[in-house]
Design a protein that fits this description.
This protein is an all-alpha fold. The chain is built from 27 helices and no strands. 44% of the residues are buried.
């Protein structure tokens, strides 16, 4: 067996990690035998699951005096494989080191930058992660938009509000014409970019962006926050919202017809219909999709994003049923959403949503059983889970469990200020809840969300009207109203709350 063929067997030329590739590929020059032996040793170690050793052997191959004879492409891919092996061997800093070396070559591939972004995120370097996604988007905009939009937005929100990396990534996305692959304009990102410009005193840049925003939820935030008053159209009022919501619904319906195999568009369409109060249509849409899946002769998914987005359509149908006063049917629909697998695993978001609804419906024990089975989740997801435990403990009269849960929420409030504020209300600590909301209103990075939470939407039925009434009473307090008026306004909106 010649050296080039053996090198291909070692997986060196593969873009996927580990010892995955077995097909020989042409390379421009022979590979020194000493380097080849180390690559083969790495391959064998990876096959055996010893990824630390696999990374060691590739590092030795790269450090070998004969490695200088390797073409740059091969050396770059060696670093990429070494980084993957190191990460699988639980050595993320080492993985990041190799990813940085891979991206330092003149010619790189998208996967090199993705590895660097992911490793930087996982070692706690969000700015480097955002910068890596910026490089990736500027080089491969179509691929990033189509396949990695969630990762990009995760990188944005992972940075601090005043991070130069956040600003640079947002600017690169805007300049590159970024929009959501299936649902169109990324107005939420552009509102954040406008805020970034305002924070830098760049009013004209902010004004240019704000003039393009039409998504109803974003326009509500625009109207509610005084920071935008100097750069938005003074003629814009809440009266425009029903028209904008109808435009949004019509646009999404058209997109759904064009891309009938994308259920995520249907889910966003359902959200637009909820704003307009067309709740029966939301339920009908969910049932139509469910019937199409059930009647399909194919065993696999019929929508390309079925495992990621189907549950959200069912969740919105559950909310529509609540608003229609059909509470038992709503709980059944929420169960359907929670039972929809996400990439073959439990759907954490929908399980947590169902658990909250079960507590509201007077079933706290089942809620506790449900969340006990939930696996890995984000820090925010953990806050939601603990808030379920807190509410359930209160409903069951378990004081120590409620105390423990509330203590966790207080310690980790930075992972979910709104969750913590609501938990204080659930506990009856109205003064503390009001103080927490006021604190969020005072913080520039939290103000958009805090102001949105105090808006007055059209009323509809609820699973827990008493809880809703406590929230409204907190907002009506003089101290909360004073804080709202310092930074924005609470509006009477001619829409139902988006979901």
């Amino acid at each position: 067996m010649n050296g080039l063929h053996a090198l291909a067997l070692a997986g060196l030329l593969a873009l996927a990690g580990g010892a995955a590739a077995r097909a020989p590929q042409p390379v421009p020059s022979p590979v020194p035998d000493a380097v080849l032996e180390l690559v083969r040793a790495s391959d064998e170690a990876a096959d055996a699951g010893d990824f630390r050793t696999a990374a060691d052997r590739l590092a030795e191959a790269l450090a070998h005096p004969d490695a200088g004879q390797l073409p740059p492409t091969i050396r770059r891919r060696l670093h990429t494989h070494a980084g993957r092996h190191a990460a699988r061997g639980d050595d993320l800093p080492r993985g990041l080191k190799h990813a940085r070396l891979a991206t330092a070559f003149e010619e790189t591939e998208l996967q090199d930058w993705i590895l660097r972004a992911v490793f930087a995120r996982d070692v706690g370097l969000p700015d480097e992660s955002a910068d890596s996604w910026r490089e990736a988007y500027q080089r491969w905009p179509g691929q990033v938009r189509r396949h990695h939009e969630h990762n990009v937005t995760e990188a944005i929100w992972g940075t601090d509000f005043d991070s130069p990396a956040r600003f640079a990534l947002l600017k690169a996305l805007r300049e590159g014409g970024f929009e959501w692959a299936w649902t169109g304009p990324a107005d939420g990102l552009w509102l954040e970019l406008a805020l970034q410009h305002l924070a830098r005193g760049e009013q004209e840049a902010a004004r240019e962006i704000v003039a393009t925003l039409t998504e109803p939820r974003i326009v509500i935030q625009l109207l509610a926050d005084r920071r935008f008053d100097a750069v938005r159209d003074p003629a814009l009022t809440p009266a425009a919202l029903p028209r904008l919501a109808r435009q949004r619904a019509d646009d999404l319906r058209a997109r759904a017809l064009l891309d009938a195999n994308v259920v995520g568009i249907q889910s966003e369409y359902a959200s637009a219909l909820l704003m307009l109060g067309e709740h029966e249509d939301v339920v009908a849409l969910a049932e139509q999709v469910a019937t199409a899946i059930a009647d399909s002769p194919f065993k696999g998914d019929i929508y390309i994003d079925q495992q990621e987005q189907l549950s959200w359509l069912y969740d919105r149908a559950g909310e529509a049923l609540v608003r229609l006063g059909r509470k038992d049917e709503a709980i059944a629909m929420y169960r359907r959403a929670a039972g929809t697998k996400e990439q073959g695993a439990a759907n954490v978001s929908q399980v947590l949503n169902l658990a909250h609804h079960l507590v509201s419906a007077g079933q706290p024990r089942e809620a506790l059983e449900l969340v006990a089975s939930v696996g890995n989740m984000s820090p925010f997801g953990r806050m939601v889970l603990v808030s379920v435990q807190h509410r359930a403990a209160l409903a069951l009269g378990d004081g120590p469990a409620a105390d423990s849960a509330l203590a966790y929420l207080e310690r980790n409030r930075g992972d979910g200020e709104g969750v913590y504020t609501q938990a204080l209300l659930d506990r009856g600590q109205d003064d503390a809840a009001a103080a927490a909301l006021i604190a969020s209103l005072e913080k520039p990075e939290e103000r958009l969300g805090a102001l949105y939470s105090v808006q007055r939407f059209l009323e509809s039925a609820s699973l827990d009207p008493d809880r809703d009434a406590r929230h409204r009473a907190m907002i009506a307090r003089d101290d909360v109203q004073a804080a709202i008026n310092r930074h924005g306004r609470a509006l009477d909106l001619p829409l139902y709350e988006p979901w």
